[in-house]
Amino acid sequence: MVNYHHVIHALRRKPMALLHLVYRDQLFPREAYRRTFDALLAERNARLASRCMVGLLALAHEWGCEAALAQHLKVLLEAGELQQLDVLREGFAPAPAEFPHVEVRLESLGIYDALMDRPRGGGMA
Description:
- By secondary structure, the protein is mainly alpha-helical.
- About 65% of the residues lie in helices and about 0% in strands.
- The termini are far apart.
């Protein structure tokens, strides 16, 4: 079984590759993703449809929202609608304010030099 997590980075560089993949239907993690790609191909040119679909897969991969995004895509398909990728990103990617604040304190390299100069314990006398 092909897992889109393994190829998403390559597809982001070359989204048109999705169109001609022999294992494309196996690549989609859920039926809603395959149906969405079919709908995108019917509504847009192949280049834009491929770019959008790869963007959706990347969104699911990066933010761990595969199931929730699939459910949302299913609702959109049933309503006969397709939202722009930017709109979906806004709805599923966390807002920057939700990211934790991480402060990294770098120590002086002199500390490491002091460790290297310190005699090792337990050695021969």
